[in-house]
């Protein structure tokens, strides 16, 4: 099977690339190999049990026949699938063979804070040429993932999927499953990517408005053009890093390498989708198939049918599809539509479906400027103060280029560019928890947290302060029930992740508010989240766009008292 | 558990028909809800945008959960316990060091850029010449060291200058720049104090304006503005204007008081790469008032058109 596959790949890539092709398949865990019959076939790189060893080391990864520098776990990108069972105690020993520190954060797992894997917050990190054992009890089930929280290692391969099977019956029924790990690969050094953004924030954007685009292809009114120009904002700044730097991967495969997942017609196929990209938000669809969303961030939701959904960095979605006897393309188009990750679902290896072309790139609008709460007539009344310091409680410095004048609740929006695509797109308001929430208390207080930045200087912060400024942590009392309002004062979508907790999206579903560990906050909008701060310790809270976090968009959350402290 | 195993087995090898009916639980059998096609609010009479403005209160099916709690500070017990939780578990010194690394790697990292904005041959009436305008910076988000240099010449160097400036961000788009300027070339080698602002004005105009005070007490000023008009993603037309002013007449500097020199240029560049672009252009440059008289007295023209060819590059 594998032999056949490699022959095919070799043919596809041409004789000169034999070495690279063979090398690459060796770097892919079995579940991520093209032609994978699904996890049930149990590849050798699916790790299970209660005592797991992970080796972090440098390696070369082949993408489209070209080799690039990667940091891999057990020699594979993505890292091995960890298949664990709810209720069990697991020990994960990490050998760091790098010449720099590393770490593994178990994204979405409810673990004691000292096992959460964030150097400088939960533990000191894993020093070069040393090892560290994580040990914890698995308190949940579902689709999760793990990744480095050190430097920019996550960009170059240090990520992998993690599935926890439920202790009892799975509330989600399926005949076969595939894990789909989305990522963005670059042959450049991640520091080069970041430096370019600092030198010229729009460096990677090759879809700016132009004079030539005034024929209509820019899709902007003159009024909006003027407004954006006056504000020194780029209406095409949808993604910081684009296909100009990235090759988008699905299970480590480029579109040309076409990862193929197999099924038998008539099966209910569960797709466990993880966005492990460093800086890319994807819009995912499988033309020809209805997608039934059955879980997000590991937690089951009431099945809801859509044709497309946006998936922010670090979000996970479980989908059920029921394919017929034909091939389908899994299309994960980037939010700025500069590129896509593509893979195939097919009943037999070798079949391929048509891949739709990239759709025209969207432009930002009034809602993204934080004027969503305003009707069209109102905004005609002269200039709005787009940086009104009286609206916030923190000092407004050079790092804050905008304060949304009239932010709207955007949980009912599907994401930038998706409100007029002619089919149904998931919104956060469509998500309804399967189980009623455990904490029925109403929140006792609300705190507003502004997501702030300066697009031109590529500065990113929360409440106007970068982590480098050592701002005060956000402090919660243990078991406090609190409402977080995340207000996006920027024109980019920020997938915000709070470690150690799930929060509920206040989306009108009452006791069935869905649980999430990572939430996309749309530009110029806000989202309300109800949180029970039940995990004592210190936790990271940050934007999961890696370069936003690296630029300072991160804070520490403290929950006290700790075990053993006097209250 | 049994159901799960059945599903797994079925997925691996067994007949799909068996699996079809083996593992479906009640939840997954329930007919899926259709997503909101129009993404309308839960309460159409009161969209959240209006609710946010206080125009209305949406009807809520599950009242308590959506009642807005007041904004408030953390309760006292949130301040209990150690400053850093991890210090209670791990080695304090190691935690301290990793916290410092965390702080250093999340914001304000030092970055550098070298920009050769204009490096050009100038076709002039009479003697042809050359000009350059470049800068380099290094630093964090707010404070940077800037070096700037510009100058021009023909068969010999007419004027050259270098500046070393401390640059401090004063708002999202502008930096205040303070430092020294040193002239060289065929004129007097003056040393100056420099104070200016550089940044991005509304409608994307790049502005650089500075006042200079020489060690001899002369005061001059210069303002430059550039605009990048993208014709396509790679073809960019750049109008550029420069004004030079002098507070006094100076025979040594060959300057009259008031507006001394102005230039208006148009450069069309093609970005082979975002960082490397050859260009061609034209520029009209002339002296005014007494400055023009100084030029004429030296047998030079007051000003005129130049044809330009050059490169813009940065790294």
TrEMBL record, chain B:
Secreted keyword on record: no
SUPFAM superfamilies named in the record: Autotransporter
Keyword hit for Amino-acid biosynthesis: no
GO process annotations (BP): intracellular copper ion homeostasis
GO CC, one annotated term: cell outer membrane
GO molecular function per UniProt: copper ion binding
Organism superkingdom: Bacteria
Name assigned to this protein: Copper resistance protein B
């Amino acid at each position: 099977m594998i032999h056949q596959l490699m022959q095919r790949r070799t043919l596809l890539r041409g004789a000169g690339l034999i070495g690279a092709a063979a090398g690459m398949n060796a770097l892919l865990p079995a579940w991520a190999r093209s032609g994978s019959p699904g996890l049930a076939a149990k590849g050798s790189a699916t790790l299970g049990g209660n005592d797991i060893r992970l080796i972090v080391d440098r390696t070369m990864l082949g993408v489209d026949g070209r080799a690039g520098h990667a940091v891999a776990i057990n020699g594979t990108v993505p890292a091995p699938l960890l298949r664990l069972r709810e209720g069990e105690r697991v020990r994960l020993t990490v050998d760091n063979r790098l010449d720099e520190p590393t770490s593994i954060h178990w994204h979405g797992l409810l673990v004691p804070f000292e096992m959460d894997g964030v150097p400088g917050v939960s533990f000191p990190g894993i020093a070069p040429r040393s090892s560290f054992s994580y040990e914890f009890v698995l308190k949940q089930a579902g689709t999760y993932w793990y990744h480095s929280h050190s430097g920019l290692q996550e960009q170059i391969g240090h990520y992998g999927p993690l599935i926890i099977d439920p202790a009892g019956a799975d509330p989600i029924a399926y005949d076969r499953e595939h894990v789909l790990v989305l990522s963005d690969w670059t042959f450049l050094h991640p520091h080069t990517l970041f430096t370019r953004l600092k030198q010229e924030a729009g460096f990677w954007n090759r879809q700016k408005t132009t004079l030539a685009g005034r024929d209509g292809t820019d899709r902007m009114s003159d009024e909006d053009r003027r407004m954006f120009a006056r504000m020194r904002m780029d209406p095409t700044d949808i993604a910081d890093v684009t296909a100009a730097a990235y090759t988008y991967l699905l299970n480590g495969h480029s579109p040309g390498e076409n990862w193929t997942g197999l099924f038998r017609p008539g099966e209910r196929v569960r797709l466990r989708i993880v966005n492990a990209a460093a800086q890319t938000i994807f819009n995912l669809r499988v033309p020809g198939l209805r997608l039934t969303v059955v879980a997000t961030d590991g937690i089951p939701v009431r099945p809801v049918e859509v044709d497309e959904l946006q998936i922010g960095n670090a979000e996970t979605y479980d989908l059920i599809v029921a394919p017929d006897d034909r091939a389908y393309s899994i299309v994960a188009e980037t939010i700025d539509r500069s590129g896509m990750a593509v893979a195939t679902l097919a009943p037999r290896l070798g079949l391929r479906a048509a891949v739709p072309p990239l759709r025209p790139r969207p432009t930002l609008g009034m809602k993204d400027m934080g004027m969503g709460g305003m009707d069209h007539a109102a905004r005609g009344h002269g200039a709005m103060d787009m940086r009104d310091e009286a609206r916030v409680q923190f000092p407004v410095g050079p790092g804050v280029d905008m304060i949304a004048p009239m932010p709207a609740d955007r949980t009912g929006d599907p994401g930038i560019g998706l409100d007029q695509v002619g089919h149904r797109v998931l919104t956060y308001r469509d998500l309804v928890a399967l189980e009623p929430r455990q904490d029925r208390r109403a929140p006792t207080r609300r705190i507003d947290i502004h997501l702030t930045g300066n697009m031109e200087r590529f500065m990113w912060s929360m409440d106007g302060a970068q982590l480098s400024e050592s701002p005060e942590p956000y402090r919660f009392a243990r078991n406090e029930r609190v409402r977080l309002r995340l207000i996006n004062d920027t024109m980019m979508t920020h997938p915000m992740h709070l470690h150690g907790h799930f929060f509920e999206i206040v989306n009108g579903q009452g006791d069935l508010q869905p649980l999430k560990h990572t939430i996309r906050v749309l530009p110029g909008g806000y989202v309300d989240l109800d949180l029970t701060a039940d995990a004592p310790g210190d936790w990271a809270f940050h934007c999961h766009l890696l370069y936003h976090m690296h630029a300072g968009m991160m804070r520490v959350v403290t929950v006290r008292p700790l075990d053993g402290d006097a209250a | 558990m049994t159901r799960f195993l059945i599903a797994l087995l079925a997925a691996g090898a067994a007949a799909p028909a068996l699996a079809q009916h083996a593992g479906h639980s009640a939840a997954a059998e329930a007919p899926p809800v259709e997503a909101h096609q129009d993404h309308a609010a839960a309460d159409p009479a009161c969209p959240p945008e209006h609710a946010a403005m206080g125009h209305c209160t949406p009807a809520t099916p599950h009242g308590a959960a959506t009642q807005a709690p007041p904004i408030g500070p953390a309760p006292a017990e949130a301040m209990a316990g150690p400053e850093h939780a991890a210090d209670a578990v791990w080695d304090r010194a190691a935690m301290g060091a990793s916290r410092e690394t965390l702080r250093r790697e999340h914001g304000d990292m030092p970055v550098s850029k070298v920009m050769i904005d204009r490096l050009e041959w100038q076709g002039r009436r009479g003697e042809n010449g050359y000009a350059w305008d470049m800068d380099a910076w290094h630093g964090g988000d707010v404070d940077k060291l800037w070096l700037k240099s510009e100058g021009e010449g023909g068969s010999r160097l007419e004027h050259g200058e270098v500046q070393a400036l401390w640059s401090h961000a004063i708002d999202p788009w502008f930096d205040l720049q303070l430092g020294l300027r040193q002239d060289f070339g065929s004129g007097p080698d003056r040393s100056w104090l420099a104070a200016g602002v550089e940044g991005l004005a509304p409608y994307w105009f790049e502005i650089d304006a500075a006042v200079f005070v020489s060690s001899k007490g002369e005061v001059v000023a210069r303002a430059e503005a550039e605009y990048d008009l993208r014709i396509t993603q790679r073809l960019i037309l750049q109008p550029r204007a420069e004004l030079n002013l002098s507070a006094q007449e100076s025979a040594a500097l060959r300057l009259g008081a008031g507006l001394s020199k102005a230039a208006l240029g148009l450069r069309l560049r093609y970005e082979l790469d975002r960082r490397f672009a050859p260009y061609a252009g034209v520029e009209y440059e002339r002296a005014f008032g007494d400055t023009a008289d100084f030029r004429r007295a030296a047998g030079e023209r007051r000003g005129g058109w130049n044809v330009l060819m050059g490169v813009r590059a940065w790294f």
